Amino acid sequence: MQQLLAELPIYIPGFLAQSLFFTRSFIQWFSSEKAGKVLSPIIYWQISLIASIIMMGYGLLRKDPAIITGQFITFYVYIRNLQIEKAWKQIPATFRYVVPFVPLVLLIILLLPGNYNMKQLTSNQNIDHWLMVFGIVAQVIFTFRFVYQWIVAEKNQKSSLPLLFWFFSLTGGAMTLFYAFMRLDPVLLISNGMGVFMYSRNIIVHYTGRGLFSKRLPTK
């Protein structure tokens, strides 16, 4: 408990990022429940991009390679989905020119000497080696959903969230939830706990074609 209180300032950007991730997921989930089919609204990708930037900073401050690895994989997928949906150029030019370099800046920080370089992250005494490996594997599975989603989006030239995306989400989310419990990370615990429910609901909506808030057809 004392350690959690001492690291409270570090958790602030983490909670902010996860609040945004939850907001995007809630919007997507609620829209899908209302429509009775799985949707992929543009705002989902816009919020994802902003949250990813903040989450990278949290992963760096937390010295957690699992978190950083996950964000590295998905960052440019968010941008590509906005491009496919013709929504990228609607974003202010200054933001579009600067944001793509954020992962590069983070990579430079990791390669330079200091308290937050790669050596410090991989030798973090607060994370057992097996747990670090498990966390990275969980994040790879969790974020591979976006790699798969990106491949499907490129093929169809339309942003969508296919069924396998949600199975990857559910598996990776459950693994990350276990990792968060072992790490006593309140940010990951809260976000993944709520996320698992929404991932499950999207799978159910996909198979049933009926959402909790969608209009029911009159019975004959």
Major sheet size, sense and barrel closure = none
Q: What helical percentage do the residues reach?
A: over 70%
The total of beta strands comes to: 0
Secondary-structure element series? HHHHHHHHHH
The average pLDDT is 84
Structural classification: mainly alpha
Shape: globular
Q: Specify Rg, calculated over alpha carbons.
A: 18 Å
Count of DSSP-assigned helices: 10
Terminal Cα span? 59 Å
Low-confidence stretches: none
Task: Work out the strand percent.
Answer: under 5%
Total individual domains: 1
In short:
This protein is 76% helix and 0% strand. With 220 residues, the chain is an all-alpha fold.
Please characterize this protein's 3D structure.
The protein has 220 residues and is mostly helical. It has one domain (2-208). It contains ten helices and no strands. The chain has helices spanning 2-6, 8-35, 42-62, 65-84, 93-98, 102-111, 118-122, 129-156, 163-183, 186-208. Helix 2 runs antiparallel to helix 3 (42-62), helix 3 (42-62) runs antiparallel to helix 4 (65-84) and helix 9 (163-183) packs antiparallel against helix 10 (186-208). 35% of the residues are buried.
